[in-house]
Design brief:
By secondary structure, the protein is α+β, with helices and mostly antiparallel strands. The protein is about 25% helix and about 30% strand. The protein contains eight helices and 14 strands. A hairpin with a 5-residue loop joins strand 2 and strand 3. The longest helix is centred in the N-terminal third of the chain and has 15 residues.
Length: about 290
């Protein structure tokens, strides 16, 4: 019997908790790569795009060279080239004037070929052929820190010069900077629509793969600039049908995180109270703690 959180025909809502210690979880290129923050509350932010990139990067590690688990949005591969492959594979003329049936054929091929298209959807009408837009079943929100964070710049030096001209001019060191957050505990939300998952062809294995990537979100994404990042909680609410039994906001109240009284400057998850309430769930909803 399929476990509820692996059933693609059910709606799922999930809470993801992760933290960072002495690192930059998501730099903002418009602000000198400073850690992203809410300018009004000073809470830290990590974009959904950042989280999706970490998920995508794990798929080839979990399913190397396995059919249905290629990645559409990948470095050094043009999106239009992948879209063109869909037209060629389905025998659809490469033109902007495609019929609904032709667009459906190309979209179905792309969904079956690429894990991230099947799960996240995408715009697939940017090339010479117009395959329209695929609405994916999975949506991730920005992650927001529970408490305000302090972003700090650190000056760093390097004894190796970049060019020979630098050496000839007498430079002995080069200066740089690195931004970090001393500590931040972040919370993000995930939503899975079963009706859209059925349309894109999501399977039990797909959902199992997705939850595995979240459980190990930072294990294969280590970098000195990101410090120490770790998933601290993953809680999946599974409904017993495709439409759902309750609003996500109602369910998310069952996972409460609060900074402990007397703690002025949080430096670990031990400075927070985590309360996961399995009681009082709406009828037809189960809660599974994966982390």
């Amino acid at each position: 019997m399929t476990q509820p959180h692996l059933d693609p025909h059910r709606r799922h809502d999930a809470v993801l908790l992760f933290d960072v210690t002495d690192g930059n979880p998501n730099g903002d290129p418009d602000a000198g790569n400073q850690p992203r923050t809410d300018t009004e509350t000073s809470q830290g932010l990590v974009t959904d795009v950042c989280l999706k990139r970490k998920i995508r990067d794990q798929i080839p590690l979990i399913h190397p060279d396995k059919p249905r688990y290629k990645i559409f949005v990948e470095a050094d591969i043009a999106l239009n080239a992948n879209i063109k492959r869909g037209f060629e594979a389905t025998g659809t003329p490469l033109t902007k004037q495609t019929s609904p049936q032709q667009r459906g054929d190309v979209q179905q091929w792309l969904c079956n070929e690429f894990f991230d298209i099947r799960m996240f959807g995408g715009v697939v009408g940017t090339g010479d052929g117009n395959a329209g837009r695929i609405r994916g079943p999975l949506q991730l929100t920005f992650a927001r820190s529970i408490s305000p964070v302090l972003a700090q710049a650190h000056a760093i030096t390097r004894i190796t010069q970049t060019t020979e001209k630098d050496i000839e001019s007498g430079e002995s060191t080069e200066m740089g900077s690195k931004w970090t957050v001393h500590y931040g505990l972040y919370r993000a939300y995930i939503h899975y629509s079963a009706t859209r998952g059925i349309q894109t062809g999501v399977s039990e294995e797909d959902l199992a793969t997705f939850w595995t990537t979240l459980e190990n979100l930072f294990e294969h994404d280590r970098a000195s600039g990101r410090g120490e990042m770790d998933v601290k909680g993953l809680y999946v609410f599974s409904h017993d049908n495709a439409y759902g039994r309750a609003r996500a906001s109602q369910l998310f109240k069952h996972v409460a995180v609060q900074q402990l009284d007397g703690v002025v400057t949080p430096r670990s998850i031990d400075d927070y109270k985590l309360d996961v309430n399995h009681d009082g769930l709406p009828d037809g909803v189960t809660l599974k703690a994966l982390v």
